[in-house]
Design brief:
Layout (H helix, E strand, L loop, with lengths): L5 E4 L7 H9 L3 E4 L14 H17 L10
Parallel strand pairs: 1-2
């Protein structure tokens, strides 16, 4: 990455000070999806992650059912 480039993605820089420092030093414009808010203050780009997190539990439960190879106790 170098000056003048724009990075638009999920960055989650809080636990990664090294990456944060490099982006600042290289004068990269970095826009984190997780910080974008709509006119109501909501975080619309995080909705797919929330949905995936909720569905993961249901998908795991289906995979553990006997007819999908789950084990009897």
């Amino acid at each position: 990455m170098h000056e003048g480039q724009t990075l638009f993605c999920y960055l989650h820089l809080a636990p990664d000070p090294v990456q944060t420092r490099h982006l600042i030093e290289r004068k990269v414009t970095a826009i984190a999806y997780e910080t974008i808010t709509d006119s109501h203050g909501r975080l619309p780009l995080l909705v797919p992650s929330e949905i995936a997190g909720r569905i993961a539990i249901q998908v795991g439960a289906v995979a553990l059912q006997l007819n999908n190879g789950g084990k009897r106790f």
